Amino acid sequence: MKLEFHGADQNVTGSCHLLEAAGKKILIDCGLYQGGREMEEENAEPFGFDPAAIDYLLLTHAHLDHCGRIPLLIKQGFTGEIIATAASCELARIVLLDSAKLMEDEANYKTKKASRHGQKERIEPLYNVVDVLNCFGFFGRIANYDQPFVIDGGIQATFIDAGHILGSASIVLDIEHQGRQHRILFSGDLGYSARAIIRDPTPPPHADIVVMETTYGDRLHKPLEPTLEEFYTAISKTLARGGNVIIPSFALERAQELLYYLREGIEHGRLPSYLPVFLDSPMAISATQIFQRHPECFDMETCATLASGQDPFMFPGLHFARETADSMAINNFSGGAVIIAGSGMCTGGRVKHHLKHNLWGRNNAIIFVGFAAYGTLARQIVDGAKEVKIFGEEIPVNAGIYTIGGFSAHADQAELLAWHRRTGQPKTTFLVHGDKDVIPIFANKLINTRVEIPAVHQRYNLEECL
Length: 466
Ligand code: ZN
Known about the structure:
Blueprint: E1 2-5, E2 17-21, E3 24-28, H1 37-42, E4 56-58, H2 64-67, H3 70-75, E5 81-84, H4 86-116, H5 129-135, E6 139-142, E7 149-152, E8 155-161, E9 169-177, E10 180-186, E11 209-213, H6 224-240, E12 245-248, H7 254-267, E13 277-280, H8 282-292, H9 300-307, E14 318-320, H10 324-329, E15 338-341, H11 351-358, E16 365-368, H12 377-382, E17 387-390, E18 393-396, E19 400-403, H13 413-421, E20 428-432, H14 439-443, E21 450-452, E22 459-461
Parallel strand pairs: 3-4, 4-5, 5-6, 10-11, 11-20, 12-15, 12-16, 13-14, 13-15, 16-19, 20-21
Antiparallel strand pairs: 1-2, 1-22, 2-3, 7-8, 8-9, 9-10, 17-18
Helix pairs in contact: 4-5, 4-8
The protein binds zinc ion.
């Protein structure tokens, strides 16, 4: 038995692990590297294994940094079966299509730019929309939570709820090797409990080998209640003075969470009873529709909302802006509205137009509810820039700026430790999906297990880890 690490090793993107057991090669996730040119160049590098030799790809969830290299895997010869939960399969489709579209747009832009300097060759995207459409045929069996199934002789898989995004799973593999049973557990990304919509992470079983994420292995999150208080207050105050509230948001999970909390706020009298809200993102709208199709992933509160005849994501005053013309028409709306648009870090998408129209106005507010990486427009505004450049124009920052932490989709240090304790005393724990400064801090907190911090393309003989 061998375990190889080909992504998200001492960093947080590009998740890809390869298990060789019972004569089969099983990939767990095949994610895209994201953030910064150097990282993105990694995507074009060889995988570190032969895609044609892989039998199965098990997908933990549909975030791009876990599924984004699937089209590339297939272009390079993968002919195996992709197995995921039903919600992950549907979400992965829109996530991959969106990714291909962005790659095509960027390649076209670079080709045009290069042609102005006399270069004739086209710059090709990593993959295009047709490559993504071609992937869909490789999605095979659907994994249901908590129902073990045989992947292949001697290999049984159980997907358990990871509580991270809709359809997310940790994967338990029970493997027969030389007459003995071994259990290997892949955490995937783990959620933060008590969040809206989806269930808390299912407590994992005991395992011999654990591969786990450590994104927030060095810190604790702010509790949800004060976070919501801050969120509702910022919106109410801004609308009371007739201003607009712009919320840059990721399309998947965060946008649906925002709709859920806005509806709750209205129902519980913490927001005005009629609240004009525009969801201005075609992808967030599609993701919301996929959420509505998967009540099997919902927590008790959300199921109760559904049972009472109420859609958890809908309320009077909510408008979906799918077409560009709908998006532009929002500028003509007067009297104050909440506008949710992508991208979350304001690096592209429709939110840039809304920032251009609203940043300069003193009555308006911008609420940041997610991570803002260095070098992004979101980060400049969060860090207090007095002026920012948008579409070539200097825009003064006069609007109120709120940065509301506490909406994280990842477990914090305490929750990661509690999850790991439930795995018993694994012989070896491999720590992945964390920054290289963060992983050692978390590693020091683990007891009763041997800890490994793999480097990219590192290979382990699992007999030596058991
Ligand atoms: Zn994730």
